[in-house]
Amino acid sequence: MSKSFSISLLLLIVTGCSFLATQQWDQRFGTSSPANRASAASFAVSNTDVPDYARDVKPIIDNRCVVCHGCYDAPCQLKLESMTGLERGANKERVYDGARLLAANLTRLYEDADSTEAWRLKGFYPVLNEREQTETANQQASVMQQMLALKQRHPLPGGGPLPDSDFDFSLDRSQSCPSIEEFDTYAKTFPLGGMPYGLPGLSPDEHQTLTNWIATGARGFDVSAHFSPELSEQIADWEAFLNGDGNKNQLASRYLFEHLYLANLYFDDGADRQFFRLVRSATPPGKPIQRISSRRPFDDPGVQRVYYRLIFYPETIVAKNHMPYVLNKARLAKWQHWFLGSEYTVPSLPSYDLATSANPFKTFHDIPPKIRYRFMLEESQYTIMGFIKGPVCRGQTALNVINDQFWVFFVDPDYPDIAEFADFLANNSDNLDLPAERDSSAGALAGWLTYSKKQQAYLKAQDNLIKTKLARYKGPDINMVWQGDGVNPNAALTVFRHFDSATVAQGLIGNDPKTAWVITYPLLERIHYLLVAGFDVYGNVGHQLLTRTYMDFLRMEGEQNFLSLLPKEAAHQELANWYRGAEDIVPTYFKEAGLAEQWQTQLTFTSDNPKAELYQKLKFHLDGVRNLNHDIDNNLLLSPTTQRHLLSLQNQQGKHLQWLPDSSLLIIEQEPPLKPAIISLLHNKAHQNITSLLLEGRNRLINEDTLTVANGILTTYPNALFKLHSNALPGFNQGVASLRSAQDYKALIDAFGVRRNNPDFWAISDELHTLYRQQEPVGHGLLDYNRLQNR
Length: 791
Description:
single chain, alpha/beta, four-stranded mixed β-sheet
């Protein structure tokens, strides 16, 4: 029997079994349809104590379910941040698929379908009962109820790590995603596969609350907006600003939208803060929003006039995609001055032709680059966070183009720089073409050589511009680095990569990193249009590879800007160290791109370690501006002894660190009156170079691994949780220093860790989120436990 015939026979059998199962369920409880839930009247149930969704049910779903089922990477696309997501149900197709040859269909909640019926046509199936609405049917025909009940019948085994034979926690694990018709087979095959998956079951009270709610029809509504008169007035003011009639107004609003469409916008600082999204609408302010949804924010809206509206964001906030951005009167006045009060003209509005719209230097040529740069700089953490928490926030392919820890600085917008020259950027816009100008099913033929030629041509033109237009320019100096106008902590950032996720935070966190970037306006804009506005998470493998290849050149440009501040010999030594073992085309590119060799740094160095000396000069340059909140020795909530132990931990480096996960969170209890503190422990893995997409493991340099120990939460996907008293820190430090094997790490977890099957897991999780909320009133959100390791 041929292999193809066997597969066809198997598919026929599975299809037949599914058809028979559907018939059986139809006979028991009628056919399935969203209309059954929508039109059902109340019915008699044995338990008349019906749980209230907002008060009783949603807090359980948030804190026990959303911690695994949120955002694009929710297993089975079952997004539970809102009732709408629960009603939509699940889908067997993955959003994140690095191997697909064609772009996938869009399945963004609230955007790509407007009803449960429409989602059913897109392949989503229910996890709540959509057959006849009775207590028995609601329980027996609900995947959600059956998953919860399965966990109650088969709780997690206790003791050490969970058995690998029963659990798969790998990032790209197979997902079963059973419908109710398939559930019996799933339960027999995976008896330990109940929900929450690989975590303790709900408490008896929590389980009973959800069981009663499901039995009584699982009624609930998304969180609704309650606008005070003051908030309504602010929304009206902002929508009036965003929808002016002149060309200048419309172009400025288009620019703002394409940079803020992922932001969680908010107005107030109260406890009942509400978040909004900026969307394109076919209807003007004062009328119901008619949302325009497109694959990318610069795609043709298909209407003659676009309006920009603020729409209430109804979902529970999850940390992994939460990018808060405040709108207030001071910011409105500043943007009115920048975008509308400045002297420039917009003779005509640019088209939405992809060759234009995907290239911001063409689309927004008429807006002075200095205004655009000022806008992006003002909230540079948000700007960089876009590619950290935006559409590429998941997956090694998207993130192995950056080092595990690096610092980010910015060129001052008032410094004589290329950002001053709008015509130059427009004239060189073809050399600044981005992969988004191809569609989301593009092939990967335009690779390294194509983009390297364009990048070199751009850098050569930039160098020539400096020589011809800036006669007084002698070379890079410390004054080129933006000081945040003396008040803005966005002047210095730290980026941490945790293998397949990442974090960006204000400040220069941890010990001196291996690399750093200095970013100019053209570089910052390209990062945004490459990895945020122009990246399609539903795109094919070609689109993703092109994006990754292009980002190599953006990273190298930022690194070269930093190296330009060093003496030439030191810069060459650093470059050779950063790109050890790289393919020949990499040093060739650097040699050909080294166009500014005539410019000598204007800084004076006196030590035998110029890079360390440069870092000190930059810290002094930014003194009083850079954020210190994550620095261990700046935490007044930690005793001096605890600070000393944590700094000692941070100074460990070497191959023993290879046994640690990428990111861990520590809850440290302290003697009263000091309260518990959250500490992030980040493993910075060293590499010979990061130019290879597929050979990351081969490029590892475990002897050069380092640690960063920081106040607060600097990962949204923790790999490990620890809870210990501050008195136990010397033992914990020694345990880390003594790591020599997987067994040693297991002993560390035995002594200090909180495993997935810890009976107190959910109580510790609740404590962690409470501390997070207290620490970051605006920036907190629910963590994601999908990457918790099982060791």
